[in-house]
Amino acid sequence: MNHTQQLVPTGWPPRRDETAEHHIVYRRDDEFAAWPYYCGLWLTADGSVVAGFKRVPTDYRDIDHYNLVRKPGEIVVIRSDDGGRTWDDESIVPVFDMSITSEAELPGGASDEWTDLPPLDFTSRDTLVMGGGIPRLMSGDGSRAWVRASADGGRTWRPHRLLPNWDLPGVTMPGTSMYAVRPDGVMLFGVHAWAPGAQNPLPVVYASEDGGQFRYLGQIVPEAPASPFWPGGRFASAQHIYPRLVVLADGRVLASVRYERDPRGLFWVEIHESLDGGRTWHWLSRVNDWGHPATSSRCRTAGCCASTAIGSRRAAASDIGSAPTRGAPGGRR
């Protein structure tokens, strides 16, 4: 069982940014457009803001979460040239067709290994990465993780590629566009591993030096043993999901993960820490009482800030690292 070893202040209220402006990014009366959290939000090298989201055709008579997740739709990106105030529909670029459920259905009929493409520069703000799962995002045994990358700030995207499973029975990217870069230039990102009979995925770390190869590096949390307190069924706990990694200035790697006791409202954010570049991990802290998945950002005035959307009770923002930061952020968003 995990325990915090120092006194942690609680009861901090959500902090509203009174300077925030609200603008419509995309809206259609016959589509459900959502999930920007794990489809991506980036500030590219030319100052453009690029947002990724899913758009699913619907007449709004059935807006059940699971039905919307499984309906055919597509993942797209859209661009703003004025800091997010206006968004150009003409800039929309499709990234993934959600009706694809097998490698044979990919454009070209198979995974493209990018062998004829130049290396990716993961330190560039124009290098964007997006991924998911086949046959779907939260699929289990036998699943494959697809990934696409852009080297020009989201204007064009490399062909679909499937990540190697490295003998894991199933692998999917958890929809995250966030990756982190170590001081030696190695890119790290979180992946869900799946196994037959497992009630929940296992968050693991993949690494790549230049986008040529993607290798398994380590697992963020221990495997969860079978327990009568996790009975299974539709609302079986997914436990640890949605790993987001950030590299601090002193080389420590932090991963924010959602711990799920029950997906109907009992979940919170935990922070796990690696002191050896993502190879091995230990539990560090719990960010909040309850809340949605967190995005971790390296800050100039604090080690790291984790932010979540307001959920069943409250949002949270915490300093979860202690080292000062300098230069470019260690996590790309």
UniProtKB/TrEMBL annotation:
<keyword id="KW-0378">Hydrolase</keyword>
<dbReference type="InterPro" id="IPR036278">
    <property type="entry name" value="Sialidase_sf"/>
</dbReference>
<protein>
    <submittedName>
        <fullName>Glycoside hydrolase</fullName>
    </submittedName>
</protein>
<dbReference type="GO" id="GO:0016787">
    <property type="term" value="F:hydrolase activity"/>
</dbReference>
